[in-house]
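Form 7-S
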Amino acid sequence: GAVADAVGYRTVWVAVIEPDRAHARLLTLHGGDPWDLAQLIPIAGDPHLQRVVTSSTPVVVEDAQVDPEVN
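Output:
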């Protein structure tokens, strides 16, 4: 694929190390199989994901910082 052709690796992650050097902020990833790379998030116990799964219309979060169902 394009990533492997450009940099010689199958997968590329772009992250920034936070100033506390205890955390990294993942900005993007490319290459590889997205299904294998994606984090598996449980729906049970997550009010927002439960709303997404049970809604018959798209769920729009206007402001995730104040929506109590978004964590």
